[in-house]
């Protein structure tokens, strides 16, 4: 098992190098000159050229790439072109907010979605099932940003219960987490339901019933652990999606997280920030996937055996 | 037939609904079983054997299946009318079931020890420790080393898994064991071992057994009485000698005709022409009439009640005594 984790962590190195090369190259070849943007429209040709030389933008591509990778290895992502604040310092400050938001959203999505799915599966064809599925359809159909705007409209502007923007106390997290959760619960409930339905049909569930167990024991002790694998997969994908898509929610609520940081940087062609943010999100993503795969082993002894046997 | 038997099934009729269609799985079945004896239900796939067994335990899938009529009495107590709570007491402790496919009938994410101990804990108010001890005992009884108790089903072979299932079924000394084709998913060499073990344990615990199979060889070895099931009906019922030496129903005769004979040279095995009837659209008359080589006109229009051809030997074919071989 330890060997498996070590191998997976080692695998992250080529993945991250790949991501770093890709993001650097994309930003290099994309049209738009940071020097020109920094100096503004009135700048003379020679001023821009001088700045480009100073920033190292006139060096050959490979030299620039090498410099970027070398610096990234030392966690040196340079400074923002505009504010001059070191990127890594800014990321360290914003990271916890995005991560907290992501984990909270996923936690509540699972907390609500999975039981709803189980309920629907065990009441298949009955009114409760239809109600849950209709609700899920609504949840899936409303995009997160629209949900966010509606929540702000009701809870902040009309009722004045919760702050609409920014980050400070726990109250600031309620609406973003809620918006993100509502849009995720539907998918999660549908998935939990179908995965549960499949397991309930299994022979070992009939075996469990034939032992005289209570229906509750049959569902939670025998069926749920088996239904958990696809649910875990989607939870991992969901978490990754939340990190990647945090941009939308963070923008709507003006939360100073990685998402807003990155989106502003993209608009300003603030290259160091874009590159660093993408790289950090890639690390986060890889770690989440590793966590999901480890959770598999925890749930299913067959997968654990495979990991232990892997070289 | 009013005296109390150990297991008495009367007029059992079960239907499934699927896609708006009604599937008549079991149609007016009568069966009896005495204590310590083995009743074999013999029939083709889809004849309704498993449905009968599952209905005894009341674990048919809900809400797709429905017991339309009939009674299943175990020592005079009707399983169909029993409360869910009473049924939970009965399941696993008084009646236990061995399922067809050992590959899928064990929970893949629970250790075999826990799965055996669970049924013991549930029925015998025992502590975790004593339940696990008993589970280890049961494993050893079925020939698996006790120290494998912490292993998961995927670490066992098919035959071993079926042994685990048997250990689980017998853990609470059930009075009635329902064995649903316990060996059909296993290798022929393992089949004999498993059957032998079931027989040994059955004698040891004086357990009655309903044995479901389509293998007449197994019936000859293990059964006391035999019911030939076809399209959810009992076509012929009697003790082993009666069925094997004096089969009356054309279907039963057809089944025996399909067994290869060592002493007769045959290029092809004899088979019964045609397929079993569609359970959503059963024939009006005798359910076997469409395939019966002896069928007469009224067989196709009239449903005959089973009658006694000799004491204890029931046959649903009205013309059984008049068939020329």
Structure notes:
The complex is a heterodimer of chains A (311) and B (325). Chain A is an all-alpha fold and 311 residues long. Chain A has a domain at 94-257: MetI-like (MetI-like fold), CATH 1.10.3720.10. Helix content of chain A is 80%, strand content 0%. Chain A contains 13 helices and no strands. In chain A, helix 1 packs antiparallel against helix 12 (271-299), helix 7 packs across helix 8 (171-200) and helix 12 (271-299) packs across helix 13. Chain A is flat, with a radius of gyration of 24 Å. The model of chain A has no long low-confidence stretch (mean pLDDT 87). With 325 residues, chain B is α/β, with parallel strands linked by helices. Chain B has a single domain (7-94, 174-322), classed as P-loop containing nucleotide triphosphate hydrolases (Rossmann fold). In chain B, 29% of the residues lie in helices and 24% in strands. Chain B has nine helices and twelve strands. Chain B has helices spanning 49-57, 84-90, 112-124, 128-141, 158-170, 188-205, 216-222, 240-245, 250-257, and strands at 7-18, 21-33, 38-42, 65-74, 77-78, 95-98, 176-180, 208-213, 225-230, 233-239, 307-310, 313-315. In chain B, helix 4 (128-141) packs across helix 5 (158-170) and helix 5 runs parallel beside helix 6 (188-205). The model of chain B has no long low-confidence stretch (mean pLDDT 88). Chains A and B meet through helix 9, helix 10 and helix 13 of A and helix 2 and helix 3 of B.
Largest sheet of chain B: 8 strands, mixed
The CATH superfamily of the domain at 94-257 in chain A appears as MetI-like
CATH level 1 class label of chain B: Alpha Beta
Helix residue percentage of chain A: over 70%
The strands making up the biggest β-sheet of chain B line up spatially as: 6-7-8-3-9-10-12-11
Based on secondary structure, the structural category of chain B is alpha/beta
Order of helices and strands of chain B: EEEHEEHEHHHEHEHEEHHEE
Number of domains of chain B: 1
**Beta-strand residue percentage of chain B:** 15-25%
At CATH level 2, the architecture of chain B is 3-Layer(aba) Sandwich
Biggest sheet of chain A, in brief? none
Radius of gyration of chain B equals 21 Å
Which residues of chain B form runs of ≥5 with pLDDT under 50?
A: none
Q: How many H/I helical runs of chain A? A: 13
What amount of the residues of chain A lies in strands?
under 5%
CATH C-level label of the domain at 94-257 in chain A: Mainly Alpha
> Would you tell me which CATH topology of the domain at 94-257 in chain A applies?
MetI-like fold
The H-level CATH homologous superfamily of chain B, spelled out, is P-loop containing nucleotide triphosphate hydrolases
Task: List the chains of the largest interface with their residue counts.
Answer: A-B, 21 and 31 residues
Q: From the 3D structure, determine the CATH topology of chain B.
A: Rossmann fold
């Amino acid at each position: 098992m330890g060997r498996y984790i070590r191998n997976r962590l080692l695998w992250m190195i080529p993945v991250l190098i790949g991501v770093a090369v890709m993001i650097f190259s994309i930003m290099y070849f994309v049209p738009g000159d940071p020097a020109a943007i920094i100096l503004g429209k009135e700048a003379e040709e020679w001023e821009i050229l001088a700045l480009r030389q100073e920033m190292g933008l006139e060096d050959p591509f490979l030299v620039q790439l090498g410099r970027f990778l070398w610096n990234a290895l030392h966690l040196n992502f340079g400074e923002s072109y505009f504010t001059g604040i070191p990127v890594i310092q800014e990321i360290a400050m914003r990271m916890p907010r995005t991560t907290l938001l992501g984990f909270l959203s996923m936690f509540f999505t699972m907390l609500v979605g999975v039981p709803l799915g189980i309920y629907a599966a065990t009441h298949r064809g009955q009114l409760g099932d239809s109600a849950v599925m209709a609700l899920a359809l609504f949840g899936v159909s409303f995009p997160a940003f629209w949900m966010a705007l509606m929540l702000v409209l009701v809870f902040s502007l009309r009722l004045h219960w919760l702050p609409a923007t920014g980050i400070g106390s726990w109250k600031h997290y309620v609406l973003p987490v809620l918006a993100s959760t509502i849009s995720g619960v539907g998918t999660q409930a549908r998935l939990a339901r179908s995965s549960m339905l499949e397991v309930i049909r299994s022979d070992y569930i009939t075996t469990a019933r034939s032992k005289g167990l209570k229906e509750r024991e049959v569902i939670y002790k025998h069926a749920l652990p088996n239904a958990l694998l696809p649910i875990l997969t989607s939870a991992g994908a969901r978490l990754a999606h939340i990190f990647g898509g945090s941009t939308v929610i963070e923008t709507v609520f003006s939360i100073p997280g990685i998402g807003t940081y990155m989106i502003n940087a993209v608009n300003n062609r603030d290259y160091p920030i874009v590159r660093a943010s993408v790289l950090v999100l890639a690390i986060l993503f890889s770690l989440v996937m590793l966590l999901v795969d480890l959770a598999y082993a925890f749930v299913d002894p067959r997968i654990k055996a495979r990991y232990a046997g892997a070289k | 037939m009013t005296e109390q038997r150990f297991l008495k099934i009367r007029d059992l009729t079960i239907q499934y609904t699927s896609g708006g269609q009604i599937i008549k799985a079991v149609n007016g079945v009568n069966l009896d079983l005495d204590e310590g004896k083995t009743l074999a239900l013999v029939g083709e796939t889809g004849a309704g054997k498993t449905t009968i067994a599952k209905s005894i335990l009341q674990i048919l899938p809900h809400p797709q299946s429905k017991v339309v009529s009939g009674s299943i009495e175990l020592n005079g107590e009707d399983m169909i009318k029993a409360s869910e709570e009473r049924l939970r007491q009965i399941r696993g402790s008084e009646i236990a079931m061995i399922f067809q496919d050992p590959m899928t009938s064990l929970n893949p994410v629970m250790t075999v020890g826990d799965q055996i101990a669970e049924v013991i804990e549930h029925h015998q108010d025992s502590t975790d420790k004593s339940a696990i001890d008993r589970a280890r005992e049961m494993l050893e009884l079925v020939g698996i080393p006790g120290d494998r108790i912490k292993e998961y089903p995927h670490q066992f072979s098919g035959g071993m898994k079926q042994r685990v299932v048997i250990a689980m079924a017998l853990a609470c000394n059930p009075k009635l064991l329902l064995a649903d084709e316990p060996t059909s998913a296993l290798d022929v060499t393992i089949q004999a071992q498993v059957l032998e073990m079931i027989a040994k344990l059955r004698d040891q615990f004086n357990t009655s057994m309903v044995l479901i199979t389509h293998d007449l060889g197994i019936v000859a070895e293990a059964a006391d009485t035999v019911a030939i099931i076809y399209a959810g009906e009992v076509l012929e019922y009697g003790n082993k000698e009666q069925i094997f030496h004096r089969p009356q129903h054309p279907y039963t005769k057809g089944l025996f005709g399909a067994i290869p004979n060592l002493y007769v040279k045959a290029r092809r095995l004899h088979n019964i022409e045609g397929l079993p009837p569609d359970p959503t659209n059963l024939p009006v008359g005798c359910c076997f009439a469409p395939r019966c080589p002896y069928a007469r006109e009224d067989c196709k229009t009239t449903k005959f009640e089973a009658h006694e051809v000799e004491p204890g030997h029931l046959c649903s074919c009205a013309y059984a005594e008049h068939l020329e071989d």
